[in-house]
Specification:
Number of helices: 12
Low-confidence stretches: none
Number of domains: 1
Bound molecules: cobalamin, iron/sulfur cluster
Strand order of the largest sheet: 1-2-8-5
Number of strands: 11
Strand content: 15-25%
Structural class: alpha+beta
Distance between the termini: 60 Å
Amino acid sequence: MKNLIERLAENFRQYDAKISILSTTHLGELRDRFQKFVLSGKISEVVHDKYIKRFKFDMPEALPSAKSIIIIAIPQKISIFTFHVQGKPYDVIYPPTYLSRDVRMNCLKTLSISPDMSDHHIVRATLPLKLLAASSGLGVYGRNQLSYTEGMGSFCRLEAYFTDQQFDEYDLQEVGKLPECAECSRCVKSCPAKCIKGDEFYIEAERCLTHFNEHEGEFPEWIKPKFHNALVGCMMCQKVCPLNKTLAKEKERLDTFSDEETDLILKKVPLEELPEKMRSRLIDMELDDYYPMLDRNLSALIK
Ligand code: B12
Ligand code: SF4
Ligand code: SF4
């Protein structure tokens, strides 16, 4: 007879996803692991304030009786958009993990229709997901500070949910490193911003290209035009990784924007003033959040 977690894992297999479970009794230890890193001085104030301080290692207010955390790794492909400028097509990369709405919806749907979960509540966790994956055996860290899951490389989106369902006790795992990193430093060499700290398995996040191109504002001068390689985010430290080699070949073509449509983006026509069909296509592909910086990011790629 299969146990609870095996049955749940089976339901997630339809998305080729893998899951792991941690007990909420581990929250204190997770906080300690995270704090140890924070206190080591490796996180700058800007990164701490922008991304880190919102993490909550307490029982969720919406579900104080939470017993477990379900961690999910869902594989995603590199996507491609084509933009046209004066009749010339430009294929532009949209990295894995930026399509998140469907992933979240599928996770919630799968959890809520699983018979073992029907009498239980689910609340999304605001926690550091890579640490959850590493501490539950779902992932290991690469030198590029990304989480690698077997069969998915680093091309997987991570999600985590609290639930009041009680699973078997699962021990907290030691955080692991990819054994392949011992003989490799391709990601370090490929990083245009030189922010991967070779032996220490962490990045200077405040220099990562993603930290700049996911937000509005001018790029600092030290970010050279040749650094840009994706519509949002950056693919360099992932695409050179041998663990992602096969996966990086599988690209999904998402949409094509005509000369006129590309022109509207480059002229910064506000999202709400775009032709309705174009606007809803952008929303479908979750580019609405990044629309205010799309003209800047796209210009950097097509020059
Ligand atoms: C803040 C953030 C960023 C910031 C900072 C990134 C960073 N490295 O911290 C910026 C904007 C730069 C960023 C960039 C990207 N991000 Co981001 N980001 C996040 C976010 C919101 C929090 C990450 C975080 O906690 N950082 C703080 C650091 C300190 O935590 P940590 O990396 O886990 O570090 C721990 C280890 O070093 C660990 N540690 C402890 N003991 C030990 C022992 C050993 C042996 C080792 C090795 C480590 C170790 O200590 C640290 C703390 O515990 C998460 C979503 C979430 N809620 O978790 C997504 C997330 C991490 N991002 C993601 C992605 C995909 C990216 C990009 C690839 C996007 C892109 N294509 O451009 C880049 C990759 C940059 C890189 N090489 O890391 C994915 C990663 C998926 C995966 N498979 O790993 C996440 C999980 C989003 C998601 N839902 O899937 N991101
Ligand atoms: S590129 Fe090499 S060093 Fe970097 S994460 Fe992949 S295996 Fe590790
Ligand atoms: S995402 Fe790009 S800039 Fe950020 S660490 Fe990786 S290679 Fe460097």
